[in-house]
Amino acid sequence: MFTGIVEELGTVEGIDSSEHAARVHIRAPLVLSDAAPGDSIAVNGCCLTVTEHDGQVWSADVIRTTLMATSLGTLAAGDRVNLERSLRADARLGGHIVQGHVDGVGEVIANEAGEGGHLIRVALPDGVTRYVVDRGSIAVDGVSLTVASVADAVVTIGLIPETLARTTLGLRTVGSRVNIEVDVLAKYVENLRPGLEAVARR
User: Fold this and answer.
1) Using the 8-state DSSP alphabet, how is residue 100 labeled?
2) Left if phi > 0, otherwise alpha if psi is -120 to 50, otherwise beta: which for 104?
3) If 186 and its partner were Cys, which of 36, 130, 131, 148 is the partner (CB 3.0–4.6 Å)?
4) Distance between the two ends of the chain, CA-based, in angstroms?
5) 3-class DSSP state for residue 65?
6) Which residues contact 147 (CB under 8 A, 6 or more apart)?
7) What number of helices (H) and strands (E) belong to the chain?
8) d(CA 170, CA 180)
9) SS3 sequence, 189-202?
10) Which residues contact 20 (CB under 8 A, 6 or more apart)?
11) Residue 138, CA distances (Å) to 36, 50, 74, 100 in order
12) Contact 122, 30 (CB under 8 A)
């Protein structure tokens, strides 16, 4: 489990690809300061498992299903990635509950300075718009953000300078693919709704 608060911008050192999987190597000394094989680190919002590290570079295996369902399949050496270690039980929940389970890949359709701040607009993947509400939470490439508005399957989000400086979102251009994870609480509410409606009819 994560909070969507990026700890470090890592750099992809290389990718070893095979027919059905890939091994990604990422330089990120900060998140490795207390990491061990088997630990979870979110990479652009995707929960990956540390297979090995030397204190500077760590590796993770990514299966074909994940490569197809997220933007990780488009990574290349030199790319910067948002990194977050899994949440400790004694830590502050600075963002919102993020599982690292990507719901789909969106597309940036605008990323520009607007009136009163910087705005990014993302066309949402099919099936997720119903979980997104104004002033609700959404994770974009693993970054916990507040929804400014949502309409016609497009979400608009305001970005503060700190977010632009500490994450990859300021680097995203029109056409960039970004990982989207909606608030898991919305999914639970949807799942519970039929049962609650049945109880109400009794």
Assistant:
1) S
2) left
3) 131
4) 37
5) helix
6) 132, 133, 134, 135, 136, 137, 138, 155, 156, 157
7) 3, 13
8) 16
9) HHHHHHHHHHHHHC
10) 63, 64
11) 29, 25, 22, 12
12) no
pTM for this model (two decimals): 0.92
Residue pair 96/135 in contact by the 8 Å Cβ criterion:
no
Contacts of 136 (CB under 8 A, 6+ apart): 146, 147, 183, 186
Tens of pLDDT, residues 126-172 = 999 999 999 999 999 999 999 999 999 999 999 999 999 999 999 99
pLDDT band at 201 (very low <50, low <70, confident <90, very high): low
Q: Dihedral sign, CA of 177, 183, 188, 191? A: negative
Torsion, Cα 93 10 23 145, to 10 degrees, reads 40
- Cβ-based burial of 102 (10 A; exposed 0-12, middle 13-18, buried ≥19): buried
**Helix runs in 32-168, H state only:** 64-69, 161-166
41 vs 18 pLDDT, higher one: 41
DSSP character at residue 88: P
In order of their start, the domains of the chain are 8-85 (2.40.30.20), 104-189 (2.40.30.20)
DSSP state of 72: G
Determine if residue 152 is left, alpha or beta; phi over 0 gives left, psi from -120 to 50 gives alpha, anything else beta.
left
